[in-house]
Protein backbone atom coordinates (compact mmCIF):
# COMPACT_ATOMS: atom_id res chain seq x y z
CA UNK A 1 0.00 0.00 0.00
CA UNK A 2 1.11 3.61 -0.57
CA UNK A 3 -0.48 7.03 -0.17
CA UNK A 4 -0.92 9.04 -3.40
CA UNK A 5 -2.65 12.45 -3.13
CA UNK A 6 -4.09 11.42 0.24
CA UNK A 7 -5.56 8.19 -1.16
CA UNK A 8 -4.43 4.73 -0.13
CA UNK A 9 -3.34 2.93 -3.31
CA UNK A 10 -2.49 -0.76 -3.75
CA UNK A 11 1.02 -1.06 -5.18
CA UNK A 12 1.22 -3.30 -8.23
CA UNK A 13 4.12 -5.68 -7.88
CA UNK A 14 5.64 -6.73 -11.22
CA UNK A 15 7.40 -10.11 -11.21
CA UNK A 16 10.35 -10.79 -13.47
CA UNK A 17 11.53 -14.35 -12.89
CA UNK A 18 13.10 -14.50 -9.43
CA UNK A 19 12.85 -10.71 -9.07
CA UNK A 20 10.11 -8.14 -8.49
CA UNK A 21 9.59 -4.37 -8.43
CA UNK A 22 6.83 -1.81 -8.03
CA UNK A 23 6.31 1.05 -10.47
CA UNK A 24 6.59 3.54 -7.61
CA UNK A 25 10.32 2.82 -7.13
CA UNK A 26 11.72 4.74 -10.11
CA UNK A 27 15.53 5.10 -10.31
CA UNK A 28 15.70 6.95 -13.61
CA UNK A 29 14.84 6.87 -17.28
CA UNK A 30 16.49 6.97 -20.68
CA UNK A 31 15.22 7.45 -24.23
CA UNK A 32 13.45 4.08 -24.45
CA UNK A 33 13.28 2.77 -20.91
CA UNK A 34 12.33 3.35 -17.29
CA UNK A 35 14.60 1.93 -14.62
CA UNK A 36 13.12 0.76 -11.30
CA UNK A 37 14.59 -0.42 -8.03
CA UNK A 38 13.66 -4.06 -7.50
CA UNK A 39 14.64 -6.94 -5.28
CA UNK A 40 15.15 -10.69 -5.29
CA UNK A 41 11.89 -12.30 -4.18
CA UNK A 42 13.56 -14.92 -1.97
CA UNK A 43 16.11 -12.45 -0.59
CA UNK A 44 14.55 -8.94 -0.54
CA UNK A 45 17.74 -7.39 0.89
CA UNK A 46 19.38 -8.02 -2.52
CA UNK A 47 18.37 -4.97 -4.53
CA UNK A 48 18.50 -4.89 -8.33
CA UNK A 49 17.84 -2.37 -11.08
CA UNK A 50 15.09 -3.39 -13.51
CA UNK A 51 15.18 -1.69 -16.90
CA UNK A 52 11.79 -1.76 -18.60
CA UNK A 53 12.04 -1.09 -22.32
CA UNK A 54 8.78 -0.13 -24.05
CA UNK A 55 8.47 -1.95 -27.36
CA UNK A 56 5.94 0.53 -28.74
CA UNK A 57 7.64 2.81 -31.24
CA UNK A 58 10.99 1.01 -31.21
CA UNK A 59 10.36 -1.48 -34.04
CA UNK A 60 13.41 -0.14 -35.89
CA UNK A 61 15.56 -0.24 -32.77
CA UNK A 62 14.45 -3.73 -31.70
CA UNK A 63 17.39 -5.34 -33.51
CA UNK A 64 19.72 -3.09 -31.49
CA UNK A 65 17.94 -4.16 -28.31
CA UNK A 66 18.45 -7.85 -29.12
CA UNK A 67 22.17 -7.14 -29.76
CA UNK A 68 22.45 -5.14 -26.52
CA UNK A 69 20.98 -8.04 -24.51
CA UNK A 70 23.35 -10.49 -26.21
CA UNK A 71 26.32 -8.26 -25.32
CA UNK A 72 25.09 -7.91 -21.70
CA UNK A 73 24.81 -11.69 -21.44
CA UNK A 74 28.37 -12.16 -22.75
CA UNK A 75 29.76 -9.44 -20.47
CA UNK A 76 28.00 -10.96 -17.45
CA UNK A 77 29.71 -14.29 -18.19
CA UNK A 78 33.09 -12.55 -17.68
CA UNK A 79 32.23 -11.84 -13.99
CA UNK A 80 34.32 -8.66 -14.02
CA UNK A 81 33.86 -6.18 -11.15
CA UNK A 82 33.85 -3.21 -13.55
CA UNK A 83 31.00 -4.60 -15.66
CA UNK A 84 27.33 -4.43 -14.74
CA UNK A 85 25.93 -7.95 -14.52
CA UNK A 86 22.59 -8.86 -16.07
CA UNK A 87 20.75 -11.24 -13.73
CA UNK A 88 17.74 -11.97 -15.92
CA UNK A 89 15.87 -10.85 -18.99
CA UNK A 90 12.18 -11.32 -19.79
CA UNK A 91 10.18 -10.58 -22.91
CA UNK A 92 6.47 -9.67 -22.93
CA UNK A 93 4.19 -8.40 -25.74
CA UNK A 94 4.63 -4.76 -24.68
CA UNK A 95 7.92 -4.64 -22.73
CA UNK A 96 11.37 -6.14 -22.38
CA UNK A 97 12.54 -6.40 -18.76
CA UNK A 98 16.27 -6.42 -18.04
CA UNK A 99 17.27 -7.18 -14.44
CA UNK A 100 20.72 -5.82 -13.60
CA UNK A 101 22.98 -5.28 -10.62
CA UNK A 102 21.90 -2.17 -8.72
CA UNK A 103 24.89 0.16 -9.12
CA UNK A 104 23.61 2.58 -6.47
CA UNK A 105 23.58 -0.18 -3.85
CA UNK A 106 27.10 -1.28 -4.87
CA UNK A 107 28.52 2.28 -4.71
CA UNK A 108 26.81 2.88 -1.37
CA UNK A 109 28.34 -0.29 0.07
CA UNK A 110 31.81 0.71 -1.20
CA UNK A 111 31.48 4.25 0.22
CA UNK A 112 30.29 2.95 3.60
CA UNK A 113 33.40 0.75 3.80
CA UNK A 114 35.61 3.87 3.46
CA UNK A 115 33.89 5.75 6.30
CA UNK A 116 35.02 5.94 9.93
CA UNK A 117 33.34 3.23 11.95
CA UNK A 118 32.51 3.81 15.62
CA UNK A 119 31.72 0.73 17.73
CA UNK A 120 31.31 -1.28 14.50
CA UNK A 121 28.38 0.87 13.35
CA UNK A 122 28.15 3.62 10.76
CA UNK A 123 26.01 6.58 11.71
CA UNK A 124 22.65 6.76 9.98
CA UNK A 125 23.44 10.42 9.19
CA UNK A 126 26.49 9.35 7.17
CA UNK A 127 24.55 6.80 5.11
CA UNK A 128 21.77 9.29 4.33
CA UNK A 129 24.38 11.90 3.32
CA UNK A 130 26.09 9.45 0.95
CA UNK A 131 22.80 8.38 -0.58
CA UNK A 132 22.05 11.99 -1.50
CA UNK A 133 25.59 12.57 -2.80
CA UNK A 134 25.31 9.56 -5.10
CA UNK A 135 21.96 10.71 -6.57
N1 LIG B 1 22.19 -0.88 -13.18
C1 LIG B 1 21.76 0.30 -12.72
N2 LIG B 1 21.83 0.60 -11.41
C2 LIG B 1 21.40 1.78 -10.92
N3 LIG B 1 20.86 2.76 -11.69
C3 LIG B 1 20.77 2.53 -13.01
C4 LIG B 1 21.19 1.30 -13.61
N4 LIG B 1 20.96 1.37 -14.95
C5 LIG B 1 20.42 2.56 -15.17
N5 LIG B 1 20.30 3.28 -14.03
C6 LIG B 1 19.73 4.64 -13.87
O1 LIG B 1 18.64 4.77 -14.76
C7 LIG B 1 18.88 5.84 -15.69
C8 LIG B 1 18.32 5.47 -17.05
O2 LIG B 1 19.08 4.41 -17.58
P1 LIG B 1 18.93 3.94 -19.10
O3 LIG B 1 19.92 2.86 -19.30
O4 LIG B 1 17.50 3.67 -19.40
O5 LIG B 1 19.26 5.24 -19.94
P2 LIG B 1 20.61 5.97 -20.27
O6 LIG B 1 21.65 4.96 -20.64
O7 LIG B 1 20.91 6.91 -19.11
O8 LIG B 1 20.17 6.84 -21.53
P3 LIG B 1 19.78 6.38 -23.02
O9 LIG B 1 19.27 4.97 -22.98
O10 LIG B 1 18.73 7.36 -23.39
O11 LIG B 1 21.05 6.52 -23.80
C9 LIG B 1 20.38 6.05 -15.66
O12 LIG B 1 20.71 7.37 -16.01
C10 LIG B 1 20.74 5.71 -14.22
O13 LIG B 1 20.49 6.83 -13.38
From TrEMBL:
Please list the GO terms describing molecular function: ATP binding; protein serine/threonine kinase activity
Quick one: signal sequence residues?
A: none
Q: Where ATP is bound, by residue?
A: 51
- Outline the extent of the Protein kinase domain: 21-135
Q: Keyword annotations for this protein? A: ATP-binding, Kinase, Nucleotide-binding, Transferase
Q: Does Iron-sulfur show up as a keyword for this record?
A: no
Gene Ontology, cellular component aspect: autophagosome; cytosol; phagophore assembly site membrane
Show the InterPro entries listed in the entry. Answer: Atg1-like, Kinase-like_dom_sf, Prot_kinase_dom, Protein_kinase_ATP_BS
Reply yes or no: does the keyword Transferase apply.
yes
Q: Name one GO biological process term.
A: response to starvation
Listed PANTHER family = NON-SPECIFIC SERINE_THREONINE PROTEIN KINASE (PTHR24348:SF22), SERINE/THREONINE-PROTEIN KINASE UNC-51-RELATED (PTHR24348)
Name listed for the protein in its UniProt record? Protein kinase domain-containing protein
The species this protein was found in:
Arctia plantaginis
The lineage is:
Eukaryota, Metazoa, Ecdysozoa, Arthropoda, Hexapoda
Amino acid sequence: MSVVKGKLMKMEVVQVGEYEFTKQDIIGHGAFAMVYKGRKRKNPSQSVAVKVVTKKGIQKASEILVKEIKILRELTALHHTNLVAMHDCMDSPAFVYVVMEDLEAIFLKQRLKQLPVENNTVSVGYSILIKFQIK
